[in-house]
Write a sequence for this structure.
């Protein structure tokens, strides 16, 4: 369970800067956009720069970080897709002294401009979340009467 939570935390830290102009995620973002543009919907390579160094710091491994991105589906909006990204690193130390490979896999909806596609977004629910409405109140409203 703790390993899954740590992987989730790493994935969230990796995803957070994608919607900004932060250079931390520039290399990862290039791989994501390349997968959207690729005829086969794929991009892979070695992650470099500040994002790779951040990931290495989290895993405590100096091994290179590889990234594999696959397009799962295209949206109706041009240049927008559902992507699966996997960050892979070998030689990650465990608490018991072993060194193992680590893969963090996640999915996201992304357009070439770095923003999510509007397709499938419940704008009413999103505005309620942004206004601070509690999840419990939103659940009550969404139940059939």
């Amino acid at each position: 369970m703790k390993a899954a939570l740590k992987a989730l935390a790493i994935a969230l830290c990796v995803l957070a800067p994608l919607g900004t102009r932060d250079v931390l995620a520039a290399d990862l973002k290039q791989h994501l956009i390349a997968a959207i543009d690729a005829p086969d919907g794929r991009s892979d390579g070695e992650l470099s720069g500040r994002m790779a160094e951040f990931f290495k710091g989290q895993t405590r491994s100096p091994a290179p970080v590889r990234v594999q991105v696959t397009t799962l589906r295209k949206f109706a909006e041009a240049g927008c897709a559902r992507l699966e990204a996997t960050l892979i690193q070998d030689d990650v130390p465990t608490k018991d002294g072993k060194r193992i490979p680590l893969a963090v896999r996640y999915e996201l909806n992304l357009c070439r401009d770095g923003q999510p596609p509007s397709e499938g977004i419940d704008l009413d629910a999103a505005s309620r979340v942004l206004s601070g409405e509690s999840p419990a109140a939103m659940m009550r409203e969404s139940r059939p009467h």
